[in-house]
Amino acid sequence: MVILDRINHVIKKNTRKWLKKPMHISDYLLGIDGITFLDATTREDALSCLVDLFVKNGKVESRSFLYEAILKREKIASTGIGMNVAIPHAKTPLYPEFSMVLGMQKQGIAWDSLDGSLVKIIFMIIGPDNRQTECLRLLSKLTEVIKNEELRTQMFHADSSASIWRLLKDY
Length: 171
Description:
Blueprint: H1 2-13, H2 15-18, E1 35-37, H3 43-56, H4 63-76, E2 80-82, E3 85-86, E4 89-91, E5 99-109, E6 119-127, H5 132-147, H6 149-157, H7 161-168
Parallel strand pairs: 1-5, 3-6, 4-6
Antiparallel strand pairs: 2-3, 5-6
């Protein structure tokens, strides 16, 4: 929760600059094809499956490079932010635009989350390393979703990628 509050503080401080263009998660999430239900039981397997979604959708040429970049970031500090959510990410000049995929794991995965909860919702983000403002705006938008308990509950109970897309497309 502390991380989310910190992100929102930075966002509110810079809101005037960012009001010019509204941001929507659906602008970054790779549609229905960017949403999957995971059978993975470990963090590494879940990360691997989500990297594969980027490859499948033509966003990444080097699967191994992205997977290693995600693992490297995860070693710095867990991206399990609490409330059953993780936001693994990698920023590098190889990715000119921000993109996001989403993995759902109904049973939950041990992730070393800040609140100790199992992770059931994983938003994986890739993007350039020189657009920090856009990255912060995207994280702020995700905090709206994550803090919305009713929406998270609906996501936990969704039974298809299309159902989740319908829940998120207007955010």
